[in-house]
Design brief:
It contains 15 helices and 16 strands. With 440 residues, it is an alpha/beta fold. It has 2 domains: 130 residues, Urease, subunit C, domain 1 (Roll); 295 residues, Metal-dependent hydrolases (TIM Barrel). The strands form 2 sheets. Strands 5, 6, 7, 8, 9, 10, 11, 12 and 13 form a 9-stranded parallel beta sheet that branches. A 7-stranded mixed beta sheet has the order 3-2-1-4-14-15-16. A hairpin with a 2-residue loop joins strand 15 and strand 16. Helix 13 packs across helix 15. It starts with 7 loop residues before the first strand and ends with a strand. Bound molecules: guanine and zinc ion. The site of guanine has 11 residues, from helix 2.
Length: 440
């Protein structure tokens, strides 16, 4: 349906793919719309006015300036619901395991973000890299420094993109350069919330790093902050590696399990995001499910750090489904590309005897992630009224992909080959709020 409140300014043409629901639950026929010759009309305010078959384009929109992508795929931009901004330089740093990797590479690098100049330069590179990979919004960690979060918010605001981020809170077991205190963490976080939360497309995420690096006193103020700002998201890490889990058990001997630590400090809930969640017990899954919390699967990171194999079917049990997102976790993750991330998620599922179709995977990276981060009223698919946050994918981007398309028979084949063989070379263009922000 055309929404004529806003003047139309631009037309995109190509093969449009639109997820309207979860194919795993509703079936492909009720979830995936595909127009081999499709069109999208964008309004002056950067929103989608109309989308459908080019043959059905209303006369009023004919003659608009057109970006014609021929048989390339146009779909909603990717959403990355777990990524670390201050780790943009340390991909492929080989640690013995998570805790060793944090101590040797991550904490020293994050210490540099006390410098506003350093952070400002990094923010531009980081956001350029997201766009070059077709990622149009993110739920991101910053470093412990207030200035780091200020810088990323400002850079994202300048680009008109959706960004949810927050200052990391951590007050023990790391070098002084990346430590705060319960008091400074609470004060700095609240100041950042007041300054940035709900400013345009920006949102604040309360960000305790993980139980290992927060004292009881800090987790207590984190829970208070979350209670005082219930509209904010909360993001942390949970049940990623055996060494981490053993440490948490020693630090919080009274707890039933790792999830219980966060539960005790009132950090579970519909706005809560727990990265990894690989080694969760049935009890933990039940608590995460009943609290409406989301677990974010980070397959390239889990494989790289040897953390373990995430079991999507265990998390998604129909009788108590835990909400699941999928994310890069750069820089523990080894790629900014959500295509590579989906490919790795597929392989992890195979190793667990599970199955993820390409339709499932692309749904997760777009509308699925949008629903989990509560942004599906604004983004996640091509529905009229939403922001025109869009990625254009080239199914023939490389010689190997080009050969593969000779035997592809349907959309599932094309998307599947893109997630197994594709990377940033398959990103032809990226749009944020209707503006082309990247072109290969
Ligand atoms: N757990 C606590 N901090 C981190 C981090 O930066 N990356 C990953 N992968 N896990 C963590
Ligand atoms: Zn992480």
């Amino acid at each position: 349906m055309a929404n004529t409140d806003q003047p139309a300014v631009k037309l995109l043409r190509g093969a449009t793919v639109n997820f309207t629901d979860n194919p795993r639950i509703k079936g492909d026929e009720n979830s995936v719309q595909y127009e081999a010759k499709g069109a999208i009309v964008i309004s002056e305010s950067g929103r989608i006015l109309w989308q459908g078959a080019f043959a059905d384009l209303p006369d009023a929109f004919k003659g608009l300036p057109c970006d014609d992508y021929d048989d390339k795929i146009i779909m909603a931009g990717f959403i990355d619901p777990h990524i670390h901004f201050p780790q943009y330089r340390i991909l492929a740093a080989p640690g013995k395991d998570l805790l060793d990797w944090l101590n040797r590479f991550t904490f020293p690098e994050e210490g540099r973000y006390s410098s506003e100049e350093y952070a400002a330069k990094a923010a531009e590179i980081f956001l350029d890299r997201l766009f070059a990979n077709g990622t149009t919004s993110a739920l991101a960690f910053c470093s412990v420094h207030k200035t780091c979060a200020d810088t990323l918010f400002a850079a994202a605001q300048k680009r008109g993109m959706s960004m949810i981020t927050g200052k990391t809170m951590m007050d023990r077991l790391a070098p002084d350069a990346v430590l705060d205190t319960p008091e400074t963490a609470a004060r700095d976080s609240q100041e950042l919330i007041n300054k940035w939360d709900n400013k345009g497309r920006l949102k604040y995420a309360i960000t305790p790093r993980f139980a290992v690096t927060s004292t009881d006193a800090q987790l207590q103020v984190t829970g208070d902050l979350y209670k005082d700002n219930p509209d904010c998201l909360m993001q942390t890490h949970l049940s990623e590696s055996p060494g981490e889990i053993a440490t948490v058990q020693k630090q919080f001997p009274w707890s039933k399990d790792y999830t219980d630590v966060y539960d005790h400090f009132n950090l579970l809930g519909e706005n809560s995001f727990f990265a990894h969640g690989i080694h969760l017990s049935e009890r933990e899954c039940q608590r995460l499910a009943e609290s409406g919390s989301t677990v974010v699967h980070c397959p390239t990171s889990n494989n790289f750090l040897g953390s373990g194999l995430f079991d999507i079917d265990h998390l998604s049990k129909p009788e108590r489904p835990v909400g699941v997102g999928v994310a890069t976790d750069v820089g523990g993750g080894t790629s900014y590309s959500m295509l590579q991330t989906l490919g790795e998620a597929y392989k992890v599922a195979m190793l667990k005897g599970r199955k993820i179709t390409a339709h499932d995977a692309f749904y997760l990276a777009t509308l699925g992630n949008a629903k989990q981060i509560k942004q599906d009223n604004e983004t996640g698919n091509l529905e009229a009224g939403k922001y025109a946050d869009i990625v254009v994918l080239d199914p023939k981007a490389t010689p190997v992909l080009e050969s593969r398309q000779e035997v592809s028979e349907n959309l599932e084949d094309i998307l599947f080959s893109l997630m197994i063989l594709g990377d940033d070379r398959a990103i032809s263009a990226t749009y944020v709020a209707g503006e082309r922000v990247y072109k290969r």
